[in-house]
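User: I'm preparing a small set of examples for a lab meeting where we compare how different chains pack in three dimensions. I only have the primary sequence for this one, and I'd like the structure in C-alpha cell form so I can line it up with the others. Please keep the answer compact; I'll paste it straight into my notes.
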Amino acid sequence: MSNKEANPAGQVRRVVTGHDAQGRAIVISDGPAPLVHTNSLRPGYASTDIWRTDAMPAPVAAAALEPTLGPRRQLPNKRGTVLRINTLAPEPESVRNLDPARAQGVFAAGGNAGASTFAANGRHPMMHRTETVDYALILSGEVTMLLDDTEVTLHAGDVLVQCGTNHAWVNRGSEPCQIAFVLIDGEFEPGLKAQFSQGNAEQITKTGSVRPASI
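Assistant: Understood. Below is the C-alpha cell output for the 215-residue chain.
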C-alpha cells in the first residue's frame, strides 16, 4: 500500500551544505532526497521528505546526519519541523469514493492514522487535522484546499498558512500540482480545542501521542 523507495514522480534534488574541518562552507551532499512516500490508494501522489529538525533552536552541526530515514512520519517531532514536497495528480474518482476505513488507512500508511477526520465530517476522504502550523508554497499547477464549509483555489506562486485547521487538498485540474510544505510543531490554545466537537477532538493528533480516529 505504501512505498518508501525512490520514485521518479517524487524525485527531488536536495543539496545540503555544511563545514569542513577548518570551518569553511562546503556542500556535503547533492542528490535525490532519499525518502519518497507513495500510496496505491492515491494514484499519482508522492510525498518527498527533504529535511527534519527535532529541536528549537535547531542544532547546527558541521555535517548534519540524515534526518529523514526510518518509518514514515507525517508530523514533526516536539519542537521540530519538517520540510517536504508533495506531488498531487488530478484526483481520480477512486479517491473520492474511499470509505472512512480506507481513508484512515491512507493516513496510517503515512504515519498518522489519528489525523483523519473523514469519519466525523464526511466532506472528503482526505480531510484531516494536525496540531501544527504549516506553510504551503504552490510550486506548480493548481490545487483546491477544502475546509469545513468553504474552499479556496491556489495557483503556482501562491502561499497558504495552515493554522491547525480541518482540511483536504484536491487537484481538480488536468496537470499535477507540486507543493512545498513546512510543518512546525504546535499546540492548540485550550479555548480553541474546546470548540472542536468531541468526535473531532478525539482525532486530533499531538506529536508523540497518536490517537486513532473513531470509525
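A couple of notes for your slides: The chain has one domain: 2-203. The first strand starts at residue 2 and ends at 3.

User: Perfect, thanks.
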